[in-house]
Amino acid sequence: MERFLHSLRAYPALAGITTFVLISVTLAVLLGTLMHRSGASLKPLVFFFGFLAIVAVPQGTVHLLDVLAHRRAVRLHAEQPPPSDTGSPSQPASPAQPAPGLKPVSWDLIFGPGADPSLITDAKRGLDAIVGAATEAKLSFNRSGESALAARFNTPLEALQALDRYGTFFQFAQASGSDDWGWTARRHGGQGEWNHLVAAGNELYAWSGATREGVEARRIQALGPIPAATAASGATATAATAATAASGASPAGTSPGRQSVSHRLVANTPVMACFVGINLVFAVGWFFKGSAWATRQSPPSNTPALDAQSLRERLLAINHGETPVTVRTADDGRAIEITWRYADARWLDLMRVHRVRRTHKLVLLPDESSRTVRVREFWSAFDASAGLDGLRLHWEAATGMQFFQFEHRRVFGAQLDADGRPTGELSAAYTFNLQELKGPVADVVTAAGWTWQPVLWNAPAGFRWLTE
User: 456 with 401: CB under 8 angstroms?
Assistant: First the structure.
């Protein structure tokens, strides 16, 4: 467990993936339990998390491969000597010497006057992959959330090795500087905090913060100015790294981010385009086919299929029951429109007049050749209020496919009738359960031997293989 928790702290991507999986599983269990108890089908849940998996699993897989590649790179770097400042990559490194002009200083200077003594911790607990060989290592935080690291080693060589491991571990990018006077870089491939890192004799110091200027200012306050020649030294080191990469070797100073799966994938345009294209095809296909499958209701086996006119008569008969819906034949004479105006309230409160209206409509189009009733959904909401401070209006309408919806609302105030006269009531409530609208209609369709098939759009016959 301790190793797993350390991995979460060390690799933000792994922590994000773990959090995402835990939240997804929790939601799946919670929603599945509620839907099962209400008697609803679990197919919409399978569709939703299936679509989520198509989008998220490839990305999560790439990030996991990045974590594994990065851990391997950290382990290999820990076993390598620090790079030589002057020799070629194939030559053995010369013995490290203390950086000219930099000597170990009091750790109080490193932590700074703003460090909170209660937040100074043992850095070897969380950063053992970097400072595990140190005889002592401390990590401090100030009131602004900035941190400072100080670690003491047996030899200057070990301090330089730790410096190299630090940059490798945190995937430094946008780096400038030198081993002599320190490096300023940004963590996690340029997406994280800024760091300044320097080895002074047998000690390693590192400062982190939100800006480059901030971390360099704290370094200068503790150790003095950074020579202007450092920039040229950084350029030389970068050139040496490029030469090493061209020779086919794996340079110790190369950030593992450059060798990560995601970096290589993004850098290879044809492969990346193919990857995105395949993922997009699966996502679009599942969006249409999966949603149609999740909402489809087939008739019971051995149910005789009625003709289209008989089915139409049964659907129109819903209008005569004690249901809060209106059923009518559409103007084109083919489709059947079923409308539920489940909220239509007017009330007066605090010198403002309010109006609320909610409407949900189903448009059914029977297809006798396939014994299928294709269903499209439309819904709208209208809110208005008027008073001494002006008029407020809000209206929205949408079409699509809703798997489930439950809405309950109570409004307080002097209730008004359709003519604007007080009714004597001081509150009004409405409840809308989409299943109460769809359920009876779908039951009529399937009992007639037809298939209930919600669709996102009435596709031409040649494209129904995609939408159904």
Answer: yes
